[in-house]
Amino acid sequence: MEGFLIWGAFTTGVAAFCVWRPQAARIFVGLFFVAMALGVHGGLIATALILGRGRAVTWGLLAAIVFLLGITPLGLEELPNVVLAAGLAFLLTQDFPTDLWTMVRRHRRPRPAIAGRPAESPSAPSPERRSR
Questions:
Q1: pTM recorded for the entire structure
Q2: Contacts of 100 (CB under 8 A, 6+ apart)
């Protein structure tokens, strides 16, 4: 019963996260499936698709939903998978035109100068932030 409650709380939190911050939740779910799928090739394929872009994300989310619902009958502890699958189903309604790797590259790229201000590095705080 303890495992059911822990997993239930986790899946409810992730489902809420999917609704609150779809882009960040998609990345979290993809990385979560990496952790769950170590050594299982099908899970790694679903993960790669979830972290991709466009139609690939849709296929990856569908694979994850089918997996979660498929293992639900295995026991009481898997029952909260339905909640997590619902969160992933919400992600199916969102548009994900950018893959994770592109987002990381964009985040690490220096920002261009804007109207007389110098370009800033994403890792260096701006002068306004340094003074606080």
A1: 0.67
A2: 27, 30, 51, 52
